[in-house]
Design brief:
649 residues, alpha/beta, Rossmann fold, GMP Synthetase, Chain A, domain 3, 2 domains, 8-stranded mixed sheet, 30 strands, 23% strand, binds adenosine-5'-monophosphate-propyl ester
């Protein structure tokens, strides 16, 4: 019996369009060939994409599972993201077209950003922050956020950004784990037309964080905040009167650049450690080649939040290292209306858009009329990250948003990997809707079975076979947990919990988290494939499946399904959908029960929380709901499941 079964077959293939390939950075296999010797490959990238104060004595020191890249090299990340571009005459280039949710805008050039970062860096020093400290940042998506991150990088303090949607308790845990002495926040941020308090949360957190000496508060919503004398100080006051010049601290390649906590669902959050030289090399490389960046002409928009790794690597460090012009947007996609993103694309003439499948499926649900009411012809490439993208969602993105002319790059990576690992290179890779295709040059990835043997066709566990420059260097304060979590399942390989399959042509298809795999009559079925078959049904926008215990089959598949706007769930819809799944991928994968729902429970970063749905499907008490974006959604689903609107068969 295979480790995970392979049911879904996708026949569509899309080769790079001639017009795209003509202008693309990569149009042949030479980078892949160079990547076969991964050490010398990454050395060449580090030389060409990053400016070093001092060179390294060794490319890689690998003491499994501890890696050091560019050993002895010295550099500063903020110098690489700012000064060197200004020195090269690009001071007037726009770094960020920033747009607030209420509609206010700011245009920030590289010269502006450098000045602000230097002033704020000097201000942080005046508060006593120095090299090696850890600074907590809890902010909305305002320009002060990248300024704060880059200022930390400039003076050699590591930042620990905590997503602004997290609770005061989550914030306090992270401050305490990192022993931060300074917290940078704002009075609040705008969300769906309302001010959301942040400083008030910080005040609660700071009751239980003995290490914190100062709290810096940026003004955004102008909501009144309480300021503790001697501890709290306004962002603008920290900057005012400071010199616009601040000599960067020259850091060792392996000095800590940042911590980013991954919210384990049950256990204590893990402080993922990322260091300086290797991280910057890989994010600059991947940002340039995966998005086929032409920094003079492109307007690039990564629509994630900087509070997640996607924002760290592909709003802040990758794009700025490459002197790109980005859009940064503060708010939700449905304010004031459901066409906000498309209005942004049209107004700034966005050329490259990087978004999550959850957003794409939400747009599918809302309907084509919203993107269709705007001119999206500036777009040249679309990216996807964060979850498997179902083939139908991929096709919708490709056709409705990209007008059938923009390659879609599905990028697989993790907080732990720091940068993109598996992705097409859009000028050369033939695409298959729903596949992340192949490991990037210089990256080693393989699917293995339960015994660790390589799978060349079919499903199994996705592993990484050798170190890569942006890899996590550990879990802050817990090297044992680092070894156990990532390096113990398969000898000499990194494994972080995803299933994947390899098809006849060697393409990789991500199958979701291993913990979510269902066992139906002894068949190990991935949630992703059943969900893709469900989303393939024309009126279905989004679906999540889980296993419910079943006397006959061990587990039975329960599907939670969201329909596109205006589609009724009445009549035989449930039965039609079940039949469709059976036809598409096989009778064994036919859901036993379909439950229609308006929304699915998601984490704040937009991932479907199947664990909670499994609790509902199995009639258990709900587990931990602290990471849930909207707790009301599960209650609603529970009521529907309980009131028999399911379609038993
Ligand atoms: O399960 C995979 C899924 O997201 C996980 C990593 O989550 P996080 O650390 O929050 O980082 C998200 C941004 C990189 C992975 O283990 N994932 C991420 N990208 C993809 C994906 N699953 C399928 N396809 C992807 N492109």
């Amino acid at each position: 019996m295979p480790t995970i079964e392979d049911f879904y077959s996708e026949e569509r293939e899309i080769a790079p369009a001639e017009e795209f390939a003509r202008q693309a950075l990569v149009t042949d296999r030479s980078l892949y060939e160079a990547g076969e010797d991964y050490e010398s490959f990454w050395e060449a990238q580090a030389k060409s994409l990053v400016s070093w104060r001092e060179g390294w004595s060794r490319v890689l020191d690998w003491q499994l599972p501890f890696a050091k890249w560019f050993v002895g090299g010295k550099l500063n990340v903020s110098y690489n993201c700012l000064d060197r571009h200004v020195e090269a005459g690009l001071g007037d280039r726009v770094a960020f077209h920033w747009e607030g949710e209420p509609g206010d805008t700011r245009t920030i050039t590289y010269a502006d950003l450098l000045g602000d970062v230097c002033r704020f860096a000097n201000g942080l020093k005046s508060l006593g922050v120095s090299k090696g400290d850890r600074v907590a940042i809890y902010m909305p998506m305002i320009p002060e956020l990248p300024v704060a991150m880059l200022a930390c990088a400039r003076i050699g303090a590591a930042h620990s950004v905590v997503f602004g949607g997290f609770s005061s308790e989550a914030l306090a845990d992270r401050i305490n784990d990192a022993k931060s002495e300074v917290v940078i926040t704002a009075d609040g941020g705008w969300r769906r037309g309302k001010p959301i308090d942040l400083k008030a949360n910080v005040d609660i957190a700071l009751e239980s964080t003995p290490t914190v000496k100062h709290c810096v508060v940026a003004k955004r919503t102008n909501t009144p905040v309480s300021m503790v004398e001697g501890r709290d100080v306004l962002f603008e006051e920290v900057m005012s009167g400071q010199d616009g010049v601040c000599e960067p601290e020259w850091m060792d390649s392996e000095d800590l650049l940042f911590l980013l906590y991954t919210s384990g669902t049950t256990a204590k959050p893990k402080g993922i450690m990322h260091t300086t030289g290797g991280y910057l090399t890989q994010v600059a490389f991947t940002h340039k080649y995966v998005f086929d960046l032409h920094p003079k002409n492109d307007v690039y928009w990564c629509a994630a939040d900087i509070g997640w790794v996607t924002g760290h690597s592909y709003i802040v460090y990758g794009p700025l290292a490459n002197a790109a012009t980005s859009v940064m947007y503060e708010g939700t996609p449905d304010f004031p209306d459901k066409d906000r993103w498309w209005s942004i694309v049209e107004r700034y003439k966005v050329t490259k858009l990087y978004a999550a499948p959850t957003a794409i499926r939400t747009f599918m649900k809302w309907g084509e009329q919203f993107p269709k009411s705007h001119d999206l012809s500036s777009l040249k490439l679309l990216g996807s990250v964060g979850e498997p993208i179902n083939p139908e969602a991929w096709m919708w993105y490709y056709e409705v948003i990209g007008g059938g002319r923009c390659p879609v790059v599905d990028t697989w990576w993790q907080t732990e990997t720091g940068g993109i690992m598996i992705s097409p290179l859009p000028g050369v890779t033939t695409l298959k809707p729903g596949s992340a295709t192949f490991p990037l040059p210089g990256i080693g990835a393989e699917v293995v079975d339960d015994n660790g043997a390589t799978v060349t066709k079919g499903g199994g566990y996705l592993t990484l076979t050798h170190p890569w420059p942006a890899m996590l260097r550990g879990i802050y304060g817990d090297s044992e947990r680092y070894k156990q979590t990532y390096w113990s399942r398969f000898e000499g390989r990194y494994f972080a919990g995803d299933g994947a399959k390899v098809d006849d042509d060697g393409f990789l298809w991500l199958l979701g988290r291993i913990d979510d795999v269902m066992n139906v009559s002894g068949h190990r079925i991935s949630t992703t494939e059943v969900e893709s078959a469900l989303v393939d049904f024309p009126s279905v926008a989004e679906a999540a499946v889980v296993g419910a215990s079943d006397d006959t089959t061990g587990q039975a598949i329960v599907a939670f399904v969201t329909l596109k706007a205006g589609e009724p769930s009445s009549g035989d819809k449930g039965e039609e959908i079940r039949t469709h799944v059976a036809q598409k991928i096989g009778a064994i994968a036919r859901p036993k029960t379909i439950i229609f729902t308006d929304e699915l429970p998601k984490t704040r970063s937009g991932k479907i929380m199947r664990r909670l749905l499994a609790d509902v499907a199995n009639g258990r008490d709900l587990g931990d709901t602290t990471t849930l974006a909207d707790p009301a959604v599960v209650e609603e689903i529970r009521n529907r499941a309980g009131s028999g609107s399911s379609d038993e068969g």
